[in-house]
Amino acid sequence: MTADPKTPETPADPAAAEPRLQHFPVPFFAAVMGLSGLTLALHAAGMQTISRTALVATVLVFAVLAAVYALKAMRYPQAILAEWRHPVKLAFFPAVSISLLLIATALQPVSHDSARLVWLIGALGQGILTLAVLSNWIGHRAFQTIHISPAWFIPAVGNVVAPVAGVQLGFPETSWVFFSAGLVFWIVLLVLVMNRLVFHDPLPGRMVPTLAILIAPPAVGFLAWLQLNGDVIDAFARILYGAALVFTALAATQVAKLRGLPFALSWWALSFPVAALTIATLRFGTLISSPLHTLAGNVGVGVLCLIVGGLVYRTVRAVLRGEICQPE
């Protein structure tokens, strides 16, 4: 009697056999935005040594993520295309160019020439990605209202980031173009996002942290306006800073919804907006000689360190457990 031939085992979940590289997500670059924001906040608070250490870490993280994503693009181009066609992930592609613009801003005090080169690459990428995303939005695809989330602000935020370093790096007119584009599309997207939040189903659990992104456009816009307007706190600057405070208060009312939610890369959406508000508060306090705002900004730096530290820990743990880079 002959033994039955052995048949190879098949995994209970066919998706488990898929390479994790195939599912390496473009939203991972939101972590670089958060780390860059922390670097800039530490610099604004006068912690130069720690800020430069954070800058090195940020550049290394960006290099690793960029290398892995480039490898994914070479081996699994269809997976990249699927992300580009995804109504939520599409908005995260400009996070790559935004990361470069933020790194350029952090590099400026260290090396003007290096910062200028990185800014040019980031600005070119941001311009191309902004037009590509907007073209996709208004193209032939049938987007639904439920697909809209605060993550859709990311392309607009990227444009407003450009002037923060662009003016001092010698690109004032280009910075004005980016600022104008970011400001106009922020207003348009704000209407769409608020309509979705008020009149339609609540955000899915993993997208709840993206509510913090509401803070970023006015906070970064305030910093960009200061660069374009010669560090003058005028009426428009106060409107932008005041709007950032209002959206911060609004986002704070939703913090309770975060309890019990499983960790996802979307949690990194909490970091950069807090960093932008912290830096804006420190700048506001300095320019109007307000000890209260300066104190609030320094407290913000401490809170930001706790947020980023917690996110780094949760991300590393999730990576080691194989919870990231899985099919959705």
Can you offer a commentary on this structure?
Helix 2 packs antiparallel against helix 4 and helix 5 (112-137) runs antiparallel to helix 6 (154-166). The protein starts with 29 loop residues before the first helix and ends in an 8-residue tail after the last helix. With 328 residues, it is an all-alpha fold. The protein has one domain (21-320): Glycosyltransferase. The longest helix has 30 residues, at 291-320. The protein has helices at 30-44, 48-75, 77-84, 94-107, 112-137, 154-166, 172-199, 216-228, 235-252, 271-287, 291-320. It has eleven helices and no strands.
Features of the shown structure:
328 residues; mainly alpha; Glycosyltransferase; 0% strand; globular; transmembrane; transmembrane helix; monoatomic cation efflux transmembrane transporter activity
